[in-house]
Amino acid sequence: QVQLVESGGGLVQAGGSLRLSCAASGRTFSSYAMGWFRQAPGKERDFVAGIRQSGLSTYYADSVKGRFTISRDNAKNTVYLQMNSLKPEDTAVYYCAADQTRSVPFIVTQTGYHYWGQGTQVTVSS
């Protein structure tokens, strides 16, 4: 089992940057694929980015490709989401998620993840 705690959210102007972090408990972090999802008010929770256990493979939603970068540090039990060139439509609560799946293709639906953080708010002003 793993517990996840996100941090790094906040208010930023359009065009700005934020880096989200997700710290995981436990000694088996490297066995978990990690994902970032986001949910805007009144909308579904959508996949943003994902990274495999080794960190060698990453996946992105089309809406964030070229602007967001997911990475992980297995020694620190932490996954990151660097968000650049932020837009007002990026405003949402951002969640990190974990699962021990090694599914191919990479899972991009929330139902594929067993463990979730509490979320961190990101607000981008225009």
Question: What this model shows, in words?
Answer:
- With 126 residues, the protein is mainly beta.
- It contains no helices and eleven strands.
- Strands 2, 4, 5, 6, 9, 10 and 11 form a seven-stranded mixed beta sheet that branches.
- Strand 4 and strand 5 form a beta hairpin.
- The protein starts with a strand and ends with a strand.
Q: Helicity, in percent?
A: under 10%
Distance between the termini: 40 Å
Gross morphology is globular
How are helices and strands ordered from N to C? EEEEEEEEEEE
The helix tally amounts to 0
Can you count the beta strands? 11
Instruction: Supply Rg.
Output: 13 Å
Strand proportion, as a percent range, falls in over 45%
List low-confidence stretches. Answer: none
- The assigned structural class equals mainly beta
Largest sheet features: 7 strands, mixed
Overall pLDDT confidence: 96
Give a brief rundown of this model:
The chain is mostly beta strands and 126 residues long. 0% of the residues lie in helices and 48% in strands.
What descriptors fit this protein?
126 residues, mainly beta, seven-stranded mixed beta sheet, four-stranded antiparallel beta sheet, 11 strands
What topology emerges from the helices and strands here?
Blueprint: E1 4-7, E2 10-13, E3 18-24, E4 33-39, E5 45-51, E6 58-60, E7 68-73, E8 78-83, E9 92-99, E10 115-116, E11 120-125
